Amino acid sequence: MGDKRGFFYNLLNRPFIFNFIRSILDGGQVRYITHILNEYSFKSVLDVCCGCGAFSKVSNSTYTGIDYNEYFIRHARTKYGVKNKEFCALDIHKLEPNTQYDVSMIINSIHHFSDRETVTILRLMREFTKMMILIHDLVPQKNFISRFFYGIDRGEFIRPVRRQKELIQEAGLSIKKCFLYRTFPGIYVHSTFLCFKE
Q: DSSP character for 52?
């Protein structure tokens, strides 16, 4: 499994392959997140661990995507970089203090971080957010096909909804809404939490 994981890890570091695999195994998420955010009015978005930038399309608001993977950021700038879309190769710890966004989101990413790291990231997101935080991530599944693909995922911390909820609350966030969403073609299930600033 170690060799297989390493092979897929390196393969998925290539933006074209990453996007292709996601589109055929875990599709429909941009449309789903767009539908959720359309219910709210906001002017700015921070996307933590933005990957290849696909979720910059969820809103016409000013968008800042950050990710430590420079290959992904270069791809995002080339494909999605327009006047109000900015992509930066850095992690949330390096954001300028006192920077504020109406909405911040972290999508398909917390399963890459330990419990402690996840809580730290969510606390930082709370500091940088004026209105709402969206957290969207994988939920473990028991069927064979799902378990196979989850097993080669680069993240080692795929958690049940209950544990995700505990970490979000530990970070001091108040959960207002929670959804479950099965992506196309049905292999992956995701949780979505909406947390609003009091």
A: T
Q: How many CB atoms lie within 10 A of CB 14?
A: 14
pLDDT by residue (tens digit) across 128-144? Answer: 999 999 999 999 887 76
Is there a contact between 107 and 191 (Cβ–Cβ < 8 Å)?
Answer: no
Question: Which residues, other chains included, contact 37 with Cβ-Cβ below 8 Å and sequence gap of 6+?
Answer: 58, 59, 103, 134
CB-based contact 51:18 (threshold 8 Å): yes
What single letter denotes the amino acid at residue 164? Q
DSSP type of residue 183:
P
pLDDT tens by residue, 142-179: 776 666 666 655 678 999 999 999 999 999 999 999 99
Pick the CATH number of 2-196 from 3.40.50.150, 3.10.350.10, 2.60.120.10, 3.40.50.300: 3.40.50.150
List the domain boundaries for the chain.
2-196
Cis peptide before 185 (omega within 30 of 0): yes
Q: Is 86 exposed, middle or buried (0-12, 13-18, 19+ CB in 10 A)?
A: middle
Judge if pTM exceeds 0.70.
yes
What b/e string do you get for 161-171 counting C-beta neighbours within 10 Å, with b at 16 or more?
beebbebbeeb
